[in-house]
Amino acid sequence: MPTIGRPRRYATNAARQHAYRARKLRAAVAPHVPCRQLGPHCTVYCGDWQDVAVLLPRQAAIVTDPPYAARYDVTKTRRRRSHWDRNYVGADQPFDPTPWLSFPEVILFGATHYWDPRLVGGSWCVWHKIPPEQQPADFAPYEDIWLWKPGPLQHYYQLWRGGMREGEENYVHLPQKLHPAQKPIDLLTFLVEQTAAPVVLDPFMGSGTTLAACVRLGRPCIGIELDPAYFAVACARLRQEVEALGLFA
Question: Residue 142 domain-assigned?
């Protein structure tokens, strides 16, 4: 009698189609680029985005916090000794948004650090990380996020100052961030919900926050991370998200 496997569950028809494409992509991608399928509609690659660029869907929404030269050393001791012994890859290099501006929907963190005239036609969201009554010290009080679509200036408020964090990533639940540039999942959920593309792509996924938001929203998603250590962190995190929702690959 043939063995019957676990049934696949898909939140949407787009998720089903993405899972089918992902299985084909895993067979086509270069052997040196590890690829994992986490749940029915979440695919992650460990490598340089350029190694898988030709395989990426052109109708994706780009939602990412890319590495750029922000002149911020995460290894520096502040009130406490830094948890990080090295900066993440690209933190000392200029970032070129050109490859991503050809996608139909694009959301980029930190775009003021790599300003490009092509960003004029979009709009901005300001993430306020420190309440006005608190001293900013050497933590930035806000962060600018560029959105491809025209519209009024948006404001998003969530405390994110070192170990002081609001939401489910507060110190009780997350004593130490998973990545130096980790962002709140509530913020990424807010941003992903503003896109409508059939797939969300984060080519610099870090600890996987964008994809975690997508999993919760039932949105097909693809992530790429160059650093094997952070790739492993993201995979473990996303696996937990998938299991919590009862989804199976």
Answer: yes
pTM given for the model: 0.85
Pairing of strands 105-109, 142-147: antiparallel
For residue 195, tell me if it sits in a domain: yes
Is pLDDT of 36 > 50? yes
Q: Is residue 5 part of a domain?
A: no
Q: How confident is the model at residue 3 (pLDDT cuts 50, 70, 90)?
A: very low
Q: CATH number for the domain including 163? A: 3.40.50
Q: Which domain holds residue 94?
A: 13-73+83-244
> Helix, strand, or coil here: 168?
helix
Structure tokens at 180: 């130096």
**Rounded-to-integer distance, Cα 47 and Cα 203, Å:** 10
7 found inside a domain: no
Closest CA to 221 of 15, 16, 35: 15
**Distance (Å, rounded) from C-alpha 203 to C-alpha 185?**
17
Q: What integer pLDDT is reported at residue 138 of this predicted model?
A: 65
Percent of the chain with pLDDT over 70: 79
What are the distances in angstroms from CA 4 to CA 7, 19, 26, 64, 223?
8, 20, 23, 39, 30
The rounded distance, in Å, linking the Cα atoms of 119 and 101 is 9
How would you label 51-87 residue by residue, b for 16+ Cβ within 10 Å and e otherwise? Answer: bbeebbbeebbbbbbbbbebeeebeeeeeeeeeeeeb
Query: 142-154: per-residue pLDDT in tens?
Result: 899 999 999 999 9
